[in-house]
Specification:
With 224 residues, the chain is α/β, with parallel strands linked by helices. The protein contains seven helices and six strands, in the order βααβαβαβααββα.
Length: 224
Amino acid sequence: MNPLKHVAIIMDGNGRWGLKKKKNRNLGHKEGLKTVEKIIQESVKNKIKFLTLYAFSTENWKRPKNEINYLFNLLETFLENKINQLNKQNIKFKVIGIKNFSKKLNKLLIQSEKKTYKNTSLQINLALNYGSKIEILNAFKKLKKKNELINEKNLTNYLYTKNIPDPDILIRTGNTKRLSNFLLWQLAYSEIFFEKKLWPEFNENDFKKIIFKFKKIKRNYGSI
Ligand code: IPE
Ligand code: IPE
Ligand code: MG
């Protein structure tokens, strides 16, 4: 049975779910947040150490202003209402990506990170304004600036995921099979699960099924 430490998820399909229900993409984002809460709790139950959630990519700025604002408002409300509960559950919150949002949101993100910094159960990495290419390029720039040797160990020290083991599992919901600039370096040996369901439809049972399948996979890492 494979040990499971880190699950990464591309939470895709919110917009389509909202359109299907009520011709409103934002409704899908609101419903998708409920799935986030379910999956956080199921991760705790399964003693998973790291849960990395792709919430907003560096490319998502191309979306209409109203949708972007709605997403960030949802996140603000979520943190304001839920960070204390997460803290009580010994959950650590970390943002991966570049925090260049409104003053209010930047502050809230930093406060949430600080408040939960010492927690030791599940660590949630929220990928926000995250782009894997920028992450890797910045890591190379830092190596160059500090005149350090270019090798795997030194490079990974400058990724946002420093000290975090690579994902064992990547899940992408929403019936689309691509990586959309997510963790390109870190996913080198992850087991990938593409799910037909849209993110708001995804539930604890779907998650448990994936974990069950993952545990039985023979992971070769190039060996036999
Ligand atoms: C993913 O759902 C969530 C974010 C990008 C914030 P989408 O909004 O991409 O939903 P679809 O893919 O358009 O249905
Ligand atoms: C990836 O979903 C980003 C997030 C889930 C946050 P997108 O819906 O933005 O990806 P593309 O544009 O379809 O590749
Ligand atoms: Mg999408």
